[in-house]
Amino acid sequence: DDTAQHFLAKNGIYAARRAKKSDMEALTRATGAKIVTNLDDLSKEDLGNAGVVEEVKVGDEDMTYVRECKNPKAVTILIRGGTEHVVDEVKRAMEDSIGDVSASLMTGKIVAGGGAPEVELAKQLRKFADSLSGREQLAVQAFADSVEIIPRTLAENAGIDPIDILTELKAQHDKEKKWAGIDIFAGKVVDSWLAGVIEPLKIKTQAVSSASEVAVMILRIDDVIAGSGSKEGGMPP
């Protein structure tokens, strides 16, 4: 209550009320402290470490900042923006970035970004298609075309002419420059690996696998529809 909080503050002890369980668990990971439900059980070994604990007003809210923790296992990223839409977009981008880093650390494998893997994959698929005949060849070529949608969309979103950039990308990959990708800031083709534009291998393989599974599923459904033509007129026997 307010009285207890007053006396604690008077003795240099910061007390926070109505802390959520998730926040308390995050604090344990950040400070190394342990959650104690009974003060009689509290001991020195249960305490954590933090250089600064202070209350800061952010906008219309009072927030408790816990800083300078030793080897924290949990941190908080504060996102600000002029509008809710901006905040939501930044939050989404941040979550995507954290997910990418997490996937990279989990597998320990990365590839160049900027559309380089997709263009190289499309190139190899077209080579494979040349060894086939009939409908199989058309299917593989169509798959190669669909893979190139990734760098095309990347270029369009960056305001770059997709036809020109894809033509240059293909030319570079034909010269065995397999890491050639799009630099969306410079608006040109660069060596994505040397430029530090990287992505987790896990996300790339998962995307190709999921796309293949969906394509197979749709084709199977199409076969069922094509093979189940309705009979017009008359009652069933």
From TrEMBL:
Q: What Gene Ontology cellular-component terms does the record carry?
A: cytoplasm; protein-containing complex
> InterPro entries under this entry?
Chaperone_TCP-1, Cpn60/GroEL/TCP-1, GroEL-like_apical_dom_sf, GROEL-like_equatorial_sf, TCP-1-like_intermed_sf
Transmembrane stretches in the record are: none
Official protein name in the record: Thermosome subunit
Question: Which family is this protein grouped under?
Answer: Belongs to the TCP-1 chaperonin family.
Query: Which molecular function terms from Gene Ontology are attached?
Result: ATP binding; ATP-dependent protein folding chaperone
Residue ranges annotated as coiled coil are none
Question: What's in the keyword line of the UniProt record?
Answer: ATP-binding, Chaperone, Nucleotide-binding
